[in-house]
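Components:
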Amino acid sequence: MMTGKEYVASVFDRVKQNNPNEEEFLQAVEEVFQSLEPVFDKYPNYIEENILERLVEPERIVSFRVPWVDDQGKVQVNRGYRVQYSSAIGPYKGGLRFHPSVNQSIVKFLGFEQVFKNSLTGQAIGGGKGGSNFNPKGKSNLEVMRFIQSFMTELQKHIGPDLDVPAGDIGVGAREIGYLFGQYKRLNGYQNGVITGKGIAYGGSLARPEATGYGVVYFAKHMLASKGYDFKGKTALVSGSGNVAIHAIEKLHDLGAKVIAASDSSGFIYDENGINLETLKRIKEVERGRIKEYKESHPHAVYTSAQEKSIWTIKADLAFPCATQNELDENDAKTLIQNGVIAVTEGSNMPSTLKAIQLFHEAGILFAPAKAANAGGVAVSALEMAQNSARTAWTFAEVDDKLYHIMKDIYKHTSAAAKEFEAEGNLVVGANIAGFLKVAQAMSAQGIV
Ligand code: GLU
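Structure:
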């Protein structure tokens, strides 16, 4: 009989062979696999059933052409994807990302992470992800609508309220969700549970826009409390200025921390008085502008371009990467550690490189991996599905309270799993194991499918 270590290594070799050049996907798989070795020593039946090799292969990947006409009358072509990763514990669930960097490796890494994240929420949702290399930046509303109508004309063949329920991610916010829902409805009739992140006027849940960012901060609160810390008087860096970052900043300010820097892909703003959220929201959510413009309203703030240096060079107690994958590398980790950071909490998916995570662990820094810390978004998506099914709508306070408790439970289960498998305090190991075990049990019970 193989040991857990031998089994994991042999499956990883096959994954590398079968998915050459899918860098981000292999990175996400490697991080999870490293954590799972002791699980297979404890449950050798999962080796016999070859759970890992089955789980790492998506159930289905759909890739399709998306032709549309721009405002100049020129025909444009993008590529659309939906990865239906695992339906072991529920319908496929996960966002759509519209960004020029989207390719098969990106949607597969996101879908793989989503399987574990969704399992950690404690809700009955499987994992999926999708998107397109379409760039909404600089496009008119009508261009975005025409692209989405073409995208959904194909995607609608593969989704449904009990089958696969998409939502937003980078580049897919309230406007895009509205157009996606409209086109789905036009082709299939009104089924409000087919997509989440909907507007309140047509079946959305209160607190869904806030959920990912608030959840990240609730998770950090419990992680900090385990070492006797709280947010009062702490300084924080929050990278990004999208939906996750904005609501993380909002909740950090609520709970007494001061966020002194935020960024977009061009650079970052340092404001020693604390980032003014109203200004940031106006620039990003209303004007769809660049963070550089923050200086026009707050001349004392300092703007630094991304080429010059990263946001992680600023000294602060807490770091919240909330922008995108691999935004925090080994050098950034070294700088943060030198500057005395206490905790790093991931808001975006896979923001830290494997080497950066290793350095945080070696330095004894509290580290919260995305699949646990940012699960609040998809958790409230599942609450939106529940409200849709029940034809009801909960208050903001009800949803926020449920979110708070879900995040508390995720922290509890993640730290307990780390302890059980002799990695106390290592929440990467804890999240991977706790997320995996539920999916493995479900797969084992359902036979070879
Ligand atoms: N895109 C978000 C995530 O990374 C939310 C997905 C959802 O609500 O389905 O988890």
